[in-house]
Each structure stands twice: as C-alpha cells, then as structure tokens.
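Hey team,

Filing this mostly as a record. A colleague (T.K.) asked me to run one chain through the structure pipeline before their review meeting, and I want the input and output archived in the tracker in case anyone asks later how it was produced. No errors, nothing strange. Just documentation.

Input sequence:
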Amino acid sequence: MLSLRVLGSVRVRLLVIALLPMLVLLPLMLGITMWRWSGKIDNILVNKVTGDLTIADQYLARLVDASGERINAVAQSVAMHAALEAGRSKSFLVDEQARLGLDFLYIADVSGGWPVIEAALRGQGRSAVDVLDAEQLRASAPGLAERARVPLVPTRAAVPTDRTEETRGMVIHSAAPITLPDGRQAALVGGLLLNRNLDFIDTINDLVYRPQSLPTGSVGTATLFLEDVRVSTNVRLFENVRALGTRVSAAVRSQVLDEGRIWLDRAFVVNDWYVSAYEPILDSHGNRVGMLYVGFLEEPFRQAKLVSVLLLGGTFLLVAMVSVPIFLRWAGHVFRPLESMARTIARFEAGDLAARNRVGSDVGEIAQVAAHLDHLLDRVQARDRDLRDWAESLEAKVAERTADLRAANRNLERTTEQLIISEKLAAVGEITASVAHEINNPVAVIQGNLDVARSVLGPAADKAAEEFRLIDDQIYRISVIVSKLLQFARPEDYSGSANLIAPSEVASDCLVLTRHQIETAGIVVNASLTAQAQVLISRTELQQVLVNLILNAVQAMPGGGTLSVSTADSKKGVVVTVADTGTGIPPEILPRIFDPFFTTKQARGTGLGLSISQRIVSEAGGRITARSVPGKGSRFEIFLPHPKAR
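Output structure:
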C-alpha cells in the first residue's frame, strides 16, 4: 500500500514527466532508428552481393560460349580439313589443344550419352558445363583424373559424409560438327577442367572485387563448387592455403542444390561469416551439379555498426548524466508546494472543509496557484450548502433533459456520418486529380524516352523487343489507371458530347471489341439486340459502360460459361442487359459494388469501373441496377430514357 502511495505522489509523477522523454522515449527512438538503419545497411550489402553474383555468372557464361566458338572455329578451319585429308589429325589436334589452352581435344563419332556431342553429331555446335567421372577423365586425356582429384577437408556446418575425396571433374564441355574425309558426320570435342583452375576463379574475383571496392578489413572471395565441394576457390584455410576440398554449409546446400533457389544472405564460409550469394550450376542434362559463389567478409561491416551503436549510446549516456541532475534540481522547486496542495486537497476530500494552504509571503507562480486554491476552497465550502439544496430539483430536470439529449444525439450521429462521407469523397476527388496529373508527366517522359531509345538503337532494339513491349504494356496500364482516376475526380471533363444513338449498335460494337477476351475464356455469347429506339448519350461513354460490364462478366467466368447481352424497347426508354453464369456476388458485397474504389480484384482493378459507369448512366438520366445469386451468376440492367422523357 505504501509503495502504491509513493508511486501515486505528485513528486513521483512530476519526476516521471520530467525524465520520461530523456530516459525512455529518446532511447526508444534511438533504438528504433538504429534498428532501421542496420536493416537498410543489410539490404545494401545483399544488393551489392547480388550484383557481384551477376558479374560472376556472366563471366562463366561468356567463358562457356567462347569455348564453343573456339572449338567451332577449329572444326570449320581449312587447316583442320587439310590435316584430316593428310591423315595427321592427331598431331594437329595436339597443337590446337596447346594453342587454345584446353585440357582435351579429340574427334568423336558417337555421343556417349552427352547432349553436347549429340547436338554436334546432328550438325549443331554446343557448349555446357558437365561433370566427368574419373574413368571419363582418364579417357579424355592422360593425367586429367589426377589433376581433378580433390581430397575432402572436414568442414564445420556441412552435411555429414563418408567420402574422403572428390574424384569427378567439372569441365567446360564443347563440341562442334565436323565432316570426316569418308563423308561421315563426327564431332570435334574439347574441354577445360575447372577443378583446381585457380586462374579461372582468380579472374572472377578480380572482376567482381576490384581494388578499394570493399572497406578496409573486408575480403572478397569467389568459389566454384562441384555439388557441395570447393574445387576451385580463393577462400583461404590459412595464410597461403586455399580451402580446396572444404564443403558448403548444410543450409546453403539445401536451398541451392536441393531446391534450386539462389542464396542471398549471410552464410558461414569455412571459418567465418560472409555476406554471400550462391546460384546453382546446371549441366547439359539440366541437372544441378554445382554452385557458383561470390561473397565478402561480414566482420568489418558488423564492427562498423557496433562502433556506431556504441558511439550513439555513449553520447546519450553522457548527455543524460549532465542533464538529469539539472532537471531534478529544477523539479525540486515545484515538488514541495505541489505536495502541500496535494495534502490540503486530500484533507478537504476527507471532509475537513476548513483545510487551507496558508502560503504566507511566497509570491511565486506555485504560491499564486495555492492562494487561488484557498479562495476556491472557500467558495466550494459556501456552495456546498447550496448544492445540497439544488440536488433534488436537478435530478428531475436531468431525467427530463436526458431523453431529449438521446434523441438529439441520434440525429447528430446520422448527420455527422453523412457529412464525413461527403467530405471524404470531396477530399478523395481532389487528391485523385492531383496524383493523376503528377503521374501523367513522368509517364509521358518515360514513353518519350522509350521511343528515343528505339530510334537510337535502330535494328539493335530488336534484341530487346520483348522488354520494350513489356514496358509499353505497363505504360499503357498506368495511362488507363490515370484516365480512370481523372474520370472519377472530374467526370465532366471527360464526358463526350451527348448524341442520339442506337444502343443495339453500340452493344454490337462492344461485343466485337471484347471478342478476344471472350473467346480466350471459352465463353458462349447469346446476343439479342432487338431495341429500335434511340437515346441521348455519348456513344463512347455508353461503350465504356458496356465494355466494363462485359469484361467484369468474363472475369467472373474463369472456367467458361454463357454471356448474355440484350437490348429491348420499353414504354419510357431502352433496357440494356448484361448477364453471366459466373461465380456471382455475395449478398453482403452487392450493395457496395458501386462505391468508389471498392474492388474484389485486388491488384487487377482500381475499384472505379462500376462507380464511373453508374455516374455516366445517371448523368444521361438513366439508372443501372444489379442482381446476383452466388454460384449462378449476375445480371446488370441499364435503363436509358427516351430523349423526350428526360
């Protein structure tokens, strides 16, 4: 009980008010800021290693393509055909192997199950990364199997294994078609062993991690894996000992080799943590046979973040140590008078109506407040007697007024709801128009520069034709969304001139405009366009309404169905009906489908189609209604009056 009283005292409350911003809110804000800052730094590091992996992947792909080009050049060369005719192809191939820096080069007339050689025997050169076992390596070139052998080194966090060495070899396998003197089709096969190929991996590392591309203390590394074994790497076990034969961690192996997904995260590499990127390597059969890795040491970045956190924390503690005593000293001048007033109020509340502060000669602000409090207590004491007399009469008046207030409150709530809705719609319209206008400018700049790019690139732009088409599609999609937003904000600016038109003709045109979507969805159309009367409305606006309803019906029938479109004359105008046999609209959603921005299509819709359609029809003096049965379909009816009836 005593502790609760202490915690509820004026002194404690004022201390909390004085120290809360300094000792609680400020550390909390600093913590949140540092946490967000640390997250952004981590994202930057992941983005960097992603770019590093892209460079390494492009280099490996270029090396594979270049190997195939060199083999094909030898196969098509005059010297090759001359050597074949002269019967000295073996010596010629030995010289060419040395000149091209290959580990083997031979002529094959059977594929041996290799897709690369099969393609060459069919007359098409091909190059890929393949894995050859020890026997295949020996058959390809003497001593190649010994060069490829890599003893396995026990590695922390790797998947357990009973193997002691890796005897297979990862090679860049290339083959080109060649015709023998007797007219038979054969293949010129060449390869470059990547096991222990330190020049290859050091070149990747030099391309990705140029001097001063990383902070002091961080080290960039690159590795080629045969499955999960490092067969070529610049990661060090010790000062000058490369980590050949060490294996990747189990987590990375599971994601990259087993699931085929790229790893972009921190990972334990041999004996330390690195910001790492791994991607699977596919052989000519399409199997995941290895991984390509790039990464850099995480420790310098972690140390930099730790130093920043310690520096900010130390600065905060220093400021707190200096400022808190000053705050407490100032607060002391307020505590004592306030505690006195708190005791006086407590006595008064306990029934001692004569309790007073007696401030004396003190003229400070708190003393003035205490004097005013004494004066108020005098008046309270005097009025206490009057209040007791008034209490009985007030009870009757309160009961009478309560009923009136409840009725007034209900009316006020309804009026307030309507006012809020009106203000929201007005604000949404203004914001929508402003945002749509601001979006149109950069979209126009993007479209203009895209056309300039096509013009400058000329025929070279055909290589990126699909990418240009995708950009055009997305720009068009943005333009459509912006147009709908503007039409929602200022429909009067986008309404066409009203003319006498035949709804049956417009409906027929709309079916032609949406024929591709209808046929693609496998939908059967039943059209009954019998209306002969004309109505006063913009042709393009009515077309917009009907196209929107037809496309909504198509999207409601993803598995196919029947779309019914009809027009019919009535006594006062024309009725246009669009019905489908789709999924229908739930009863709880049906009353809201004409609300602005309400949509059930998530990212595929803006929620403005039906709202704009309702406004267009209303401005033409008509109305649009909807009926739906879940699981059976929906039916939209548009009534447009005769011109004389408007």
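Quick notes for T.K.: The mean pLDDT is 82. The domain at 44-310 is CATH 3.30.450.20 (Beta-Lactamase).
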